[in-house]
UniProtKB/TrEMBL annotation:
Gene from which this protein is expressed: SMKI14G1430
Organism: Saccharomyces mikatae IFO 1815
Official protein name in the record: non-specific serine/threonine protein kinase
Annotated keywords: ATP-binding, Kinase, Nucleotide-binding, Serine/threonine-protein kinase, Transferase
Low complexity compositional bias, start-end: 42-66, 175-187, 268-278, 367-378, 689-700
Annotated SMART domains: S_TKc (SM00220)
Amino acids binding ATP: 466
Domain spans labelled Protein kinase: 437-741
Gene Ontology molecular function terms on file: ATP binding; protein serine/threonine kinase activity
First-level EC class: transferase
Gene Ontology CC terms, in alphabetical order: cytosol
Biased composition regions of type Polar residues, renumbered to the chain: 17-34, 152-174, 237-249, 284-304, 313-338, 345-356
Length: 789
């Protein structure tokens, strides 16, 4: 037990004797009869916000260890909190259709805590009424009835955050979040002064966190898994270049994609220009699908008719972008400037002096007109199914900006049952609305915007087009453009079969549209069909992990992994989408970890450290979320609605371990290597089998509570993935080496000449569902219909 915990316990012990007796529900240790797991989350999502809001009134209490029991750090919950913990057991699967569906329409949540002035938990949901819905659990289905509670919940936020999980780990984190966390980031543990400093009123720059007692771990050396080797980064960088690409694709050392573009847009002459909030997607419609999601056609000068959002996803790249190490344009050959000036790829590009939204317009216009200069690299190979005989430019806007342009993974079919992933083509200089037509219904909408189906006129190929949301009233143009550009740049830079390909981004009629390859199904819809075989689930899981492995290998973390952010094509290839929350955690040739900040992600998939620390390593966060995805696919339920002690299911999961508090569990560090083999093996047993000291056979408590519901061969590695301590959680490399993972017969692509062919796993086929239910929008529609009947 840390001295801090002891200190707090003593302090609280005194308080306890004065205060009213706590209820049994307050303890981390729970009896088997305690509240079962719960995923009926739709109407309780506001409790997340509320509890945060009310945290200043929460109090920390500690109990003295009782023999045969487990010492706990307890919380006194608000009524709202405790009401959120009722639920159903994991085995109670009959609620799958409704509750899982409802609760899984979780649009990304983020907590601006450390940076936003108001420390509100923002969110947005673009809905047809033009109102912003607010969700942590809810998407559009449940948004309406939650708006009120969220509005009120956020009106009295106050914040408290534990500085950094790894602040005591000797990374040098270059200028990390200097702007908002400088005063906290160096505290290696909470001292008694913490109480004095924060117990009363919270400073403005601290976000509210449950009143868990945390002390960051002290370690003497950097764990190897935290170190990104130069070789690895170089290899990853080389892998992502294809033979024709002379431009550098690696992530440049410096802030972030968006920061560099931000420099481009905003470095000087911050002049007002046209408003990004206006007309809807302006391509012609050839179907009876719903009209475009027009939010504010009349808005001008930055004002918007969209109601003030309560929550919004934080542009995490933006956070990282505030690190002025180097310059993006210093070595980013695909920058707008470089395209405009036709510089050879090897030359550095000086930082642009353009700024503001006007620059965004110019950015796209110029690149459009200059795109032909880089066409040769992107021409469709003759004979390719996509080739129409003439070399056409690829990524009509994008290739010039984000060092991409040769992603070979766009999908087409050769008529022989093989999927061909070949280069893209487009026609630059022609307005988007003349090149694409909208077909069919909407695919989905979330915090980032709405996604619709579109057909490219030149070759009838279908694409998913994301129309980025308009700028929030309280969002600066700078933040807005940074968010958009970072998502786009990441999208166009990534190059992997399990990552969605961004074809181009278009700025037209004051709308920003991202054209992506289209996948026929949302993984969520497939899971909802309840038809997936176990082998199919394993295949999808391994594909997700493969995508994560790729991301981590190039220094990026997704941070919003969830079923909704996985799509799957007809060939059974799973792709990760939505990089609006992604962060760079490592830059090439640097061994430094760039910590992420903010509560970003979707409640049920959040790793516990995200809710506790202001800064954290984003990699283990992805690992945790991936495990939750797996559990959801198997159980058709969320194990808990949010990883906080006020969630009884999560509390039960945390209970029964040989540890005295959640803080201690989350800040544990790996055992040092031991020469004694047998001793070390015993110590490194998975959590599920070793930590449940109260009763190892009690499957209602501790990690076993979740693990026992999963197939036996999966329990070891899933247990490693949901280790409460991120420092002990398995790395993606370790996970991929697991014997069960290795044994999964995964559908994948193999390269054949210039195209890629799908090799299907032999022990399964991939479920397909009717297109009317293949995407979240369709499922929502169906649900609405059912409700109206
Ligand atoms: N390339 C694609 N192919 C098929 N469907 C897609 C594609 N991209 C997005 N979608 C659909 O659109 C939905 C919303 O997309 P996305 O997650 O990018 O938006 P978002 O606004 O960032 O959402 P969220 O707030 O949930 O993170 C997805 O859940 C999916 O149903």
């Amino acid at each position: 037990m840390s001295s801090l915990t002891r200190l707090l316990q003593e302090k609280r012990k005194n308080e306890t004797s004065k205060s009213s007796p706590r209820t049994s529900a307050d303890t981390l240790t729970s009896t088997p009869e305690s509240q079962p797991l719960d995923i009926q989350a739709r109407n309780r999502s506001s409790s997340h916000v509320s509890s945060v809001s009310n945290s200043s009134s929460n109090r920390i209490r500690a109990t003295v260890p009782v023999p045969g029991s487990v010492t706990t750090v307890t919380q006194i919950y608000s009524e709202e909190d405790s009401s959120s913990t009722a639920g159903s057991s994991l085995d109670d699967r009959n609620q799958f259709s409704s509750s899982f569906l409802n609760s899984n329409f979780a649009h990304t949540a983020s907590f601006y805590g450390t940076s936003a002035q108001s420390k509100e938990r923002f969110g947005s949901l673009m809905n047809d009424q033009g109102a912003a819905g607010f969700s942590s659990y809810g998407g559009s289905l449940a948004a309406q009835n939650r708006i009120t509670s969220r509005l009120s919940a956020t009106s009295h936020t106050s914040g408290r955050a534990i500085p950094s999980l790894s602040s005591s780990i000797p990374y040098s984190v270059p200028n990390s979040n200097k702007d908002n966390n400088s005063s906290n980031s160096n505290s290696s543990s909470l001292s008694s002064s913490w109480l004095e400093t924060y117990a009363g009123g919270m400073p403005n720059n601290i976000s509210a966190i449950d009143s868990n007692v945390i002390s960051s771990p002290k370690v003497d050396s950097v764990e190897p898994r935290f170190v990104i080797s130069k070789q690895k980064l170089q290899k990853a960088s080389m892998d992502s270049n294809n033979a024709n690409t002379t431009q550098a694709r690696s992530i440049s050392r410096s802030g972030s994609f968006s920061s560099q573009l931000g420099n481009f847009f905003f470095s000087k002459n911050s002049k007002e220009s046209s408003n990004p909030n206006s007309a809807g997607m302006s391509f012609p419609v050839n179907s009876n699908g719903p009209s475009p999601n027009i939010k504010n056609p009349n808005a001008t000068n930055g004002s918007t008719a969209i109601p003030k959002p309560i929550r919004a996803r934080q542009s995490s790249i933006y956070s990282a972008s505030r690190q002025p190490t180097g310059s993006y344009t210093d070595n980013f050959y695909g920058s707008p400037s470089s395209v405009h000036d036709h510089l050879p790829p090897s030359q550095s590009v000086p930082r642009s002096q353009h700024s503001s939204i006007g620059d965004l317009k110019r950015f796209f216009k110029k690149s459009s007109s200059n795109n032909l200069s880089s066409n040769n690299n992107n021409a469709i190979p003759n004979g390719s199914p996509l080739s129409n005989g003439i070399p056409v430019p690829s990524h009509s806007h994008s290739s010039s900006h984000c060092a991409s342009g040769n992603n070979p993974y766009s999908t087409s079919y050769n008529g022989n049952g093989d999927t061909i992933y070949s280069h893209n083509h487009g026609v630059s200089g022609i307005p988007f609305s003349k090149r694409y037509i909208k077909t069919g219904a909407d695919l989905g909408a979330g915090a980032g915007g709405s996604v619709k189906l579109a057909q490219r006129i030149s070759d009838n190929q279908i694409f998913a087009v994301k129309e980025f949301r308009t700028r929030f009233e309280n969002e600066s143009k700078r933040d807005y453009v940074k968010k958009i550009t970072s998502e786009y740049c990441i999208g166009t830079t990534l190059n992997h079969p399990n990552i969605i390909e961004t074809i181009e981004i278009v700025y037209e009629n004051d709308r920003i549209l991202q054209v992506m390859e289209y996948c026929e199904y949302d993984l969520f819809a497939i899971v909802m069909s309840n038809k997936m075989s176990y082998e199919e689930i394993c295949c999808c899981f391994k594909q997700i992990l493969t995508g994560v492995q790729y991301l981590h290998s190039i220094g990026l973390a997704h941070r919003d992994l969830k079923l909704d952010n996985c799509v799957i094509n007809e060939e059974g290839i799973v792709k990760l989408i939505d990089f609006g929350a992604a962060v760079v955690f490592s830059y090439p040739f640097s061994k430094n970890l760039v910590e992420a900040s903010g509560i970003v992600g979707s409640d049920p998939y959040l790793a516990p450290e995200v809710c506790i620390f202001a800064k954290y390593d984003p990699r283990p966060v992805d690992i945790w979320s991936s495990a939750i995805i797996f559990a959801c696919m198997i159980l058709k339920k969320f194990p808990w609605k949010i990883p906080k002690l006020r969630d009884n299911s999560f509390k039960l999961f945390c209970s029964g371990r040989d540890c005295d508090s959640l803080s201690s569990l989350v800040t544990r560090t790996p055992d040092p290597p031991s020469y004694d083999e047998s001793h070390s093996t015993e110590k490194k047993k998975p959590e599920g089998s070793s930590n449940n000291v109260s009763d190892p056979n009690n499957v209602n408590i501790g990690p076993q509570r979740l693990l026992h519901s999963l197939p036996e061969e999966t329990q070891h590695i899933i247990g490693r993935m949901i280790d409460l301590a991120p420092a002990c959680r398995g790395s993606i490399e370790e996970i991929m080496e697991d014997s069960w993972i290795r044994s999964i017969d995964m559908c994948h692509l193999v390269e054949e000449d210039l195209s890629f062919k799908v090799v299907r796993g032999e022990d399964h086929h991939h479920t397909q569902v009717d297109q009317s239910e293949a995407h979240i929008a369709g499922l929502e529609k169906k649900k609405k219909k059912q409700n109206n009947q």
